[in-house]
Design goal:
The structure is a homodimer. Chain A is α/β, with parallel strands linked by helices. Helix content of chain A is 42%, strand content 16%. Chain A contains 15 helices and twelve strands. In chain A, helix 2 (20-27) crosses helix 3 (31-38). At the A-B interface, helix 1, helix 5, helix 6, helix 7 and strand 2 of A face helix 1, helix 5, helix 6, helix 7 and strand 2 of B.
DNA sequence: ACGATTTGCCAAAACGTTTTAGTTGGCTAT
DNA sequence: ATAGCCAACTAAAACGTTTTGGCAAATCGT
């Protein structure tokens, strides 16, 4: 009868981790039985299983992950590959997605390997992870049209999930919101309310999410029989900093503009003071609508300024990314797309049209 | 003579990764020779080595990391464990440190395993990584006094590096700036310029960096023979959101206060408008000093408001964390502390005292 | 009572590397 | 000629798991 020891004391005394062999020796059983007992196989006696789990807990045994990974050809690691652009990590949108992913990863027992690469070493970095077997799959963020990462990953057959979509999205797993549909509806709403010159303060259109939003407002104007220049485009490459301020100033400088759609509440916030003090347009205050990614600390309903918005949780999207990857890797399910739901909130006075009827049949199911 | 194939084609055709056995078979050599050729041992002929490296490149061979990790007992993985508090990932300070760490990790061929845990599962999470051998070491961020994580990690003997210090810092590796010294000097500077009631808008004093800053201004007042209430404390738990605004408003409401020290430029920015429009104090504009972590997009020299600051790069700190861990794990060096340098910039008119002479001998080398 | 089935356990192989402890053959020094 | 040495290679063990295939004892059905 050995006295119970603090697991960390065992670790320190041994100078190495407790292995399955230690357990086998301790209990006079084979390592096969230990393994099968701990992994819940039915060919282990209930009494034996109890002895094994007790001893494992007492000695603080945790299976060596590298041995498991080697033999099972599964790592329970996900790679999250980012361009080595420090600005990225300062983007609250990214942080929000990551927070959601980390929470779900914990639940599903995955680890996220975060890594950065030099601007011109994108594919080689993915290739390294594919070939050295250190991850089960990849998260691809901010896809571009004809994204090389997608091309590469489809080629290798490795599991991956894209946050966003591009033209081949029916062939891989993705998580996205309805960028096109949402912005189409916001655009039609403003048009229905009489606005004839509207600013879109958009994100970087090298990325599809922003491109699709642009396409949506353009189509909305066209479908309403309005001229091409109904929407005036302003692009920001990063939501932090003063882009929101300077672009808001530019938009307000055009006295014909009576409404602004923001692609992120961060851009709106940065132009907040300008909006609050902007003189009326044609007798009405400037109309403001925004994408609301449900970022913490940034709730559009708590602003003094009345803002219409469409809300979709980036946090949920992060969680869904890991869930989809787990479905592919753990359950062998085929890749599938997950649409994160969106909720509209339209301020009184703008609410003159049903937002559900503004996406015409020929625009349905468009991704961008 | 086989024709050259695209590495990914080989991968797809094989249905599995290229292994060292494949290389051995291809070249008619033993796996020992392949291994030793690729790892630069001298007992391999130059011609043979060339053949091996060529074949490896041609077939896109990368050693299976899990096999390497198992046999070498080294993972080249670092765990970055965070409380599952989504707010954390929205903190630009954290993002900045992480960006620096990721850059250095790439250089030193490490991967960062980012993970979150429920609030009450901190130590078990560390324990899991220690016991399952999935990482070489840990980064510990935002230490508290008598931090349990440090206690636990010192106990196990696993490598770790702390970003910040606590009382046992001579026994482990750390990276830090001189919180105490810097804030002592800022405090003495303001005192020397005649301020007798000064606000410190500080971070969360559950964390040592903020506690040490508090201690520093308190000591500075004491050393100057001023009363305890010379410094008025305001604490914020998170630098985003409206804390900077509300705390600035509170500070300005005290008409005796003639100067404010901010613990972060983010807090300052959030109170920026209030500062710009604040009425003079005793005939002079309110004096403002801040910590400048060299965050991107937030350069205090570009503000309309003249601000004294002490700058220390969080990005560099992040890089130093990984460098220190590599020194311990790869070179077997004993743990050591790295002080990230700080630079003062004092606005004209406040610069009436030499900032270098304000830290008295009996305060030297204080960590807090 | 006895063959068939079930229960509970185990030896050995496999995963893909690195490392140890060689072996072989050719060259050098005497 | 031959002992000694060096250059270039390799067989086998080891890392710590999971899995395959099997075996012995206990239980069951008739």
């Amino acid at each position: 009868m050995e006295k119970p020891r603090k697991p960390s004391a065992v670790l320190a005394a041994l100078g190495r981790s407790v292995t399955i062999k230690d357990l086998a020796a301790e209990l006079g059983l084979s390592i096969t039985t230990i393994s099968r007992a701990l992994n819940g196989y039915s060919d282990v006696g209930e009494k034996t299983r109890r002895r094994v789990t007790d001893a494992a807990a007492r000695l603080g045994y945790h299976p060596n992950r590298n041995a498991q990974r080697l033999v099972m050809q599964r790592t329970h690691n996900v790679a999250w590959v980012q361009t080595d652009n420090e600005l990225k990590y300062l983007d609250p949108h990214f942080a929000e997605v990551m927070a959601g992913a980390l929470g779900q990863a914990r639940v599903l027992n995955y680890d996220i390997v975060l890594t950065s690469h030099a601007i011109d070493r994108e594919i080689p970095t993915y290739d390294r992870y594919v070939r050295d077997n250190s991850v089960d799959g990849f998260i691809v963020d901010l896809p571009r049209e004809n994204d090389e990462r997608v091309t590469y990953l489809m080629d290798t057959g490795r599991a991956f999930v894209v946050h966003g979509r591009e033209r081949r999205c029916d062939r891989y797993g993705w998580v996205d919101m309805d960028n096109y549909g949402n912005f189409y509806r916001l655009a039609r709403l403003l048009i229905a309310n009489g606005h004839r010159r509207i600013a879109l303060i958009n994100g970087d259109e090298h990325f599809n999410y922003a491109l699709y939003r642009h396409n949506a407002v353009r189509d909305a104007a066209q479908d309403a029989g309005l001229p091409e220049d109904t929407f005036v485009l302003f692009n920001s490459s990063h939501p932090m900093g003063d882009a929101g301020f300077t672009l808001t100033a530019s938009a307000l400088a055009d006295r014909e503009i009576t409404a602004i759609i923001y692609s992120s509440i961060l851009l709106l916030m940065s132009g907040y003071e300008l909006l609050m003090t902007a003189p009326d347009r044609k007798g009405r205050p400037i109309a403001v609508a925004t994408m609301d990614d449900n970022l913490r600390h940034l709730d559009p309903t708590r602003l003094a300024l009345r803002v219409s918005f469409v809300r979709s949780s980036l946090h949920d999207a992060g969680a869904a990314l890991i869930a989809e990857l787990s479905r592919q890797c753990d359950e062998g399910r085929p890749p599938s797309g997950t649409m994160i739901p969106s909720v509209f909130q339209i301020i009184p006075g703008l609410d003159r049209t049903s937002i559900d009827e503004t996406l015409p049949v020929h625009r349905r199911n468009r991704i961008g």
